[in-house]
Amino acid sequence: METSSKRSVECEGEAASNKRPALANDHAIIVPDGADRDESVHHVPLGNDEVETTGELNQTAKQKEEDVSAEDRTSKDYYFDSYAHHAIHEEMLKDDVRTKTYQMAIMDNKHLFQDKIILDVGCGTGILSMFAAQAGAKHVYAVDCSSIIDQARKIVERNGFADKITLIKGKVEEIDLPVDHVDIIVSEWMGYMLLYESMLDTVIYARDRWLIPNGIIFPDKAVLFMAGVEDGSVKRERFDYWHDVYGFDMTPIKEIAITEPVVDVIDPKAIVTNAVPILRLDILTCKKEDLEFTAKFRLQAHRDDYIHGFVTYFECAFSQIHKPIGFTTAPFARYTHWKQTILYLEDTITVCAGESCEGEISCQPNRRNPRDLDIGLNLRFKGRYSNCDKSIKFRLR
Ligand SMILES: C[S@@+](CC[C@H](N)C(=O)[O-])C[C@H]1O[C@@H](n2cnc3c(N)ncnc32)[C@H](O)[C@@H]1O
């Protein structure tokens, strides 16, 4: 089965489901009502606006800059700059699957927030801090290293929360809080393929330093999934394109391009196999080491088709609240700004219904740029029409 290359357009016509799909998952995830799709949102490329920081932080940034050569200047260097611009926050706020799930999780659980001390890890515009203050928190500490916090300060004042929310500009790992402990941590740390940006490290740091025993983290569960996809038209358009560019062979670029996972919307009809969980995280207990993982997988085709790559997506849950909720970034659910992340294969696998491909997928932060992800795929397939035994490396940057 072939699917259209105009994936975002095709997707517009999909019936967006409100119900959590039946996946191999052990916690209830409900996508909130009224979270409409917004096809106008786009990922904002990492920019390089000047970030205002303390002298000490500027020093650290300069030092880091000297450590990396020009070709390695990727997300590591531009990370906080990228969050300084309002457009990336607009994209996140307009993702109402995301934002409304946080709002519901907080506002429908006022009993948890009443008179409690809250820490917002990476507050951005201050949206989660203001939800927490509205829910009755005694005080909220909102931390962000990006200069967007200057706008957050004005927003907090304008909305009458200046006495309830203290904004602290700096890296969570480098600041001191005026309190020794917090009752609840709220944070939106998830990146593409769940772990891109490595911001969960920061939440783990904050949890271990400040969260009281039996404290609460919003959200507290995350699961990453993978499935096989038929996506021939996009593969041809993105990668095979380089075979003949105005009559020239530009395949050296194809060889690089295919090692970079693609963040895009996948038509749910393109999914050829079952989806399997490859990482389950309990944010209350996980360690930094758990974020480097290798998982075995076995994916069985549910129809005769081709596998051109593997799609990954994630789900998050707020399970410590009165009635657990969550959201999914799956292709068959509503659009989110995370879309899906696809690992395309150089070779196409011809698969028959019932046949399985298996292997191991590994993922770890890149050694030089820890906000990038190095992904390894060992793939084995023996089918009626094709065989495959390969090790492939990708880098999400
Ligand atoms: C994905 S945004 C979420 C913003 C906001 N909480 C929301 O939900 O709209 C993550 C924010 O965390 C900040 N951030 C990431 N790592 C940080 C760190 N180590 N220390 C302080 N801020 C950090 C970024 O600058 C960014 O503004």
TrEMBL record:
Residues 118-215 form the Methyltransferase domain. The keyword Heme does not apply. It comes from Fistulifera solaris (Oleaginous diatom). It is found in: Nucleus. Pfam families: Methyltransf_25 (PF13649), PRMT_C (PF22528). Its main location: nucleus. GO terms for molecular function: histone methyltransferase activity; protein-arginine omega-N asymmetric methyltransferase activity. It comes from the Eukaryota. The lineage of its organism: Eukaryota, Sar, Stramenopiles, Ochrophyta, Bacillariophyta. GO terms for biological process: methylation. Residues 220-383 form the Protein arginine N-methyltransferase domain. Keywords: Methyltransferase, Nucleus, S-adenosyl-L-methionine, Transferase. The keyword Transcription regulation does not apply. Residues 1-73 are annotated as: Disordered. CDD domains: AdoMet_MTases (cd02440). Residues 1-10, 62-73 have a biased composition (Basic and acidic residues). This is Type I protein arginine methyltransferase. Its EC number is 2.1.1.319.
